[in-house]
Amino acid sequence: MAGFKHVIFDVDGTLADTDNISQRALQDLLFEWTGEEEDLKDLAFTRGIPGDEALAQLGILDEGALERWDELAREHADEVKLFYGVREMLEELLKSGKKMGVVSSRRRDEYEAVISPLGIDGYFENMVLAEDTDRHKPEPDPLLEYLRRAGAKPEEAIYVGDTAHDSRAARAAGVSFVFAGWGAASYVEQASYWVHAPSEVLLIANYAL
After folding, report:
1. Tens-of-pLDDT digits for all 209 residues of the chain?
2. Is 197 inside any structural domain?
3. Of 79, 139, 183, 205, whose CB neighbour count within 10 A is largest?
4. Same domain flag for 173 and 146
5. What contacts 78, CB < 8 A, 6 or more positions away?
6. What is the distance in angstroms between the CA of the first residue and the CA of the last residue of the chain?
7. Is the overall model pTM greater than 0.70, yes or no?
8. Do the beta carbons of residue 41 and residue 26 sit within 8 Å?
9. Residues 6+ apart with CB under 8 A from 59
10. Buried (b) or exposed (e) across 67-80, using 16+ Cβ within 10 A?
11. Where does the chain show beta strands of DSSP type E?
């Protein structure tokens, strides 16, 4: 069977539907900090980048703001769900002998509070989170760190994500990018493969090169 040996996943908007709670929490935070209510569409650029970078781009440099954003999001952590078909996809990839991992801009404490309760950590041999590299997506460093830990070559891996930041990071690392259309807020043109359901990742991982 041809295909890729390593399947690496972004988390938010790819495995887990977290967009609503994160963006609404940010909207609430900005209202607390500034007294102004931002339109959610104007906050879409914050998806896929570390929280401190997102706040800096919004002009909020207070260290307490990030902690407050986390608090607001965690109040709704029980609303986070896996996208339909994700668990089945992970199980089939495991059965087919693929090595799986996570590369996410979430901090470890955020990940453990919001994502770990979904019960999918056991599928992943390596997790690269915000603390693990000095530079973050769209720089290639997190994916390169995954490759280093896994002892993998770039051509042996695909990175499944939903944002332009994910695409840029993958291309810079020499890894094929799979655009996960089921959770994306906007279309990403630069990808090696475009899929619209988790089951389609299986086909790419097992047969495409």
Report:
1. 568 999 999 999 999 998 778 888 889 899 988 888 888 888 888 876 778 888 899 888 887 888 898 888 888 788 899 999 999 999 999 999 999 999 999 889 889 988 999 999 999 999 999 999 999 999 999 999 999 999 999 999 999 999 999 999 999 999 999 999 998 878 899 999 999 999 999 999 998 76
2. yes
3. 205
4. yes
5. none
6. 11
7. yes
8. no
9. none
10. ebbbebbeeeeeeb
11. 6-9, 16-17, 81-82, 99-103, 126-128, 157-161, 176-180, 193-195
Q: Is 117 left (phi over 0), alpha (psi -120 to 50) or beta?
A: alpha
Q: Residue 47 belongs to what domain range?
A: 19-79
Residue 125: name the closest of 144, 102, 106 by CA: 102
Which amino acid appears at position 127 of this protein? M
* Residues forming beta bridges with residue 76, ordered by sequence position: none
| Together in a domain, 104 and 69 | no
The residues, any chain, with a CB within 8 Å of residue 184's CB and separated by 6 or more, are 13, 162, 163
Q: What letter would DSSP give residue 123?
A: G
The residue behind tokens 């988790």 is 198
| pLDDT score for 25 | 86
CA distances to 29, 35, 172, 198 from 130, in Å? 21, 30, 18, 25
Question: Could you say which DSSP state residue 83 is in?
Answer: P
